[in-house]
C-alpha cells in the first residue's frame, strides 16, 4: 500500500497544511515570486530581496492600499459634513431681555461663571434662589450658554417648592423670559395678580413679555396699569419691592417716558 505524502508545513506559522491556503493562519501556500525580476519570495515578504520592488505592486496588495485610502477619505468627508451640519443647524441662543438684572442677589455673590454651585445640601428655596442668582449673573454677562445650562435646574427647583410666594413666582417668570418663554411668563404674571391683586411684579412681567413679543399695545397697557398702582403699592412697604428696587424704578422711568407721565429724577419724561 502506498503511503500518502506528508502534508507540507505552512511557511508562515509552521502548521501542517495543504491546498492553497493554511487552515490554521490563512496564509497562502502558493509560491510567490517578484513581478519584476521573478525572484522567489518568502510568505511574509513585503519587498523583493533581490530588486527591492514592493510585493503586490500592480496586484492585489496595491489595490488593497488604494481601497484603504479611499475608505479613509470617504469617512473624513462624512465627518466634516456632520460638523458643518451641526454648526449650521444649531439652535440660536436666547435673546437676553432688558430685565436681566432682575434684582438683589439675596446675599449670594459667589456663583460666578465657572463651576456649578454646590446645592446638594440646600433647601428647595435656597436651591431655587441660588440658581436664579446664577442665571441672572450669566444674563448680565451675556453668557447665554450658562443661562441655558442652569434654567432647567432652576425651574426644577421651583417646581419642588412647598410654598410659593409672589417673589418666587416673579423669579420664575424672569427665568422664563430669559429663554423666550413668553407664554410661561404671562401665566406666572396672571397668577401673581390673582394671588396679590395690583402687585407691581405682575405688570413688570407683562410689560417685559410684551416688549419681547414686539407688542407695543400690550406694553403700553402694562405700563399704564403699573403707574396707576405704583404709589399705593410702594406705600405698602413690601420686602420684595425693596429687594428689587432698581428694576421697579427702571420700569417706572420707561413707563413715564412712554406714557408722557411725570419727569423722573433725571429730568426726563
Describe what this molecule looks like in 3D.
- The chain is mostly helical and 269 residues long.
- The chain folds into two domains: 12-88, no CATH class; 98-259, Serine Threonine Protein Phosphatase 5, Tetratricopeptide repeat.
- The chain is 53% helix and 3% strand.
- It is built from nine helices and four strands; from the N terminus they run ββββααααααααα.
- The strands form two sheets. Strands 1-2 form a two-stranded antiparallel ribbon. The chain has a two-stranded antiparallel ribbon with strand order 3-4.
- It starts with 7 loop residues before the first strand and ends in a 10-residue tail after the last helix.
- The relative contact order is 0.07.
> Regarding CATH, which class of the largest domain?
Mainly Alpha
**Total domain count:** 2
Shape: rod-shaped
* Most strands sheet: 2 strands, antiparallel
Strand content: under 5%
Compute the number of helices. Answer: 9
CATH architecture of the largest domain: Alpha Horseshoe
Radius of gyration: 37 Å
What are the key terms here?
2 domains, 9 helices, 269 residues, 3% strand, two-stranded antiparallel ribbon, rod-shaped
Helix and strand arrangement:
Layout: E1 8-9, E2 16-17, E3 32-33, E4 40-41, H1 60-88, H2 124-140, H3 144-159, H4 166-178, H5 182-195, H6 200-212, H7 216-235, H8 239-243, H9 245-259
Antiparallel strand pairs: 1-2, 3-4
Amino acid at each position: 500500500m502506498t503511503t500518502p505524502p506528508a502534508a507540507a508545513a505552512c511557511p508562515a506559522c509552521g502548521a501542517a497544511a495543504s491546498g492553497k491556503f493554511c487552515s490554521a493562519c490563512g496564509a497562502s501556500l502558493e509560491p510567490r515570486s517578484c513581478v519584476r525580476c521573478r525572484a522567489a519570495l518568502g510568505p511574509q515578504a513585503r519587498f523583493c530581496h533581490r530588486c527591492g520592488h514592493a510585493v503586490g505592486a500592480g496586484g492585489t496588495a496595491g489595490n488593497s492600499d488604494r481601497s484603504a485610502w479611499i475608505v479613509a477619505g470617504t469617512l473624513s468627508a462624512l465627518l466634516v459634513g456632520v460638523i458643518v451640519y451641526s454648526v449650521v443647524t444649531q439652535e440660536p441662543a436666547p435673546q437676553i431681555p432688558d430685565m436681566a438684572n432682575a434684582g438683589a442677589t439675596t446675599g449670594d455673590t459667589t456663583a460666578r461663571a465657572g463651576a456649578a454651585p454646590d446645592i446638594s445640601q440646600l433647601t428647595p428655596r435656597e436651591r431655587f434662589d441660588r440658581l436664579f442668582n446664577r442665571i441672572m449673573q450669566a444674563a448680565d454677562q451675556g453668557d447665554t450658554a450658562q443661562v441655558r445650562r442652569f434654567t432647567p435646574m432652576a425651574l426644577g427647583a421651583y417646581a419642588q417648592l412647598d410654598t410659593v410666594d409672589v417673589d418666587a413666582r416673579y423669579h420664575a417668570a424672569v427665568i422664563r423670559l430669559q429663554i423666550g418663554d413668553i407664554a410661561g411668563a404671562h401665566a406666572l404674571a396672571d397668577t401673581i395678580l390673582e394671588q396679590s391683586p395690583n402687585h407691581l411684579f405682575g405688570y413688570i412681567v407683562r410689560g417685559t413679555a410684551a416688549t419681547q413679543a414686539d407688542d407695543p399695545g400690550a406694553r403700553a397697557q402694562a405700563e399704564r396699569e403699573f403707574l396707576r398702582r405704583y404709589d399705593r403699592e410702594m406705600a405698602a412697604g413690601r420686602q420684595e419691592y425693596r429687594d428689587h428696587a432698581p428694576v421697579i424704578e427702571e420700569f417706572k422711568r420707561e413707563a413715564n417716558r412712554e406714557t408722557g407721565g411725570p419727569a423722573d429724577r433725571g429730568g426726563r419724561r
